[in-house]
Amino acid sequence: DSSSFSANGFTLESVRDALTRQEDTIVFSLIERAKFPINSQTYNESYVSVLGFRTSLVGFIVRNTEAIEAKAGRYKNHEENPFLPGHLPLSVVPSYPYPEVLHPAAAFININKSIWKMYFGKLLPSITAPGDDGNYASTAASDLTCLQALSRRIHYGKFVAEVKFRESPQDYEPAIRSQDREALLKLLTSESVEEMVKKRVGKKAMVFGQDVSLDTNDNKGNYKVNPSIVSRLYGQWVIPLTKLVEVEYLLRRLD
Ligand SMILES: O=C(O)C(=O)C[C@]1(C(=O)O)C=C[C@@H](O)C=C1
Question: What pTM, to 2 d.p., does this model score?
Answer without folding.
Answer: 0.95
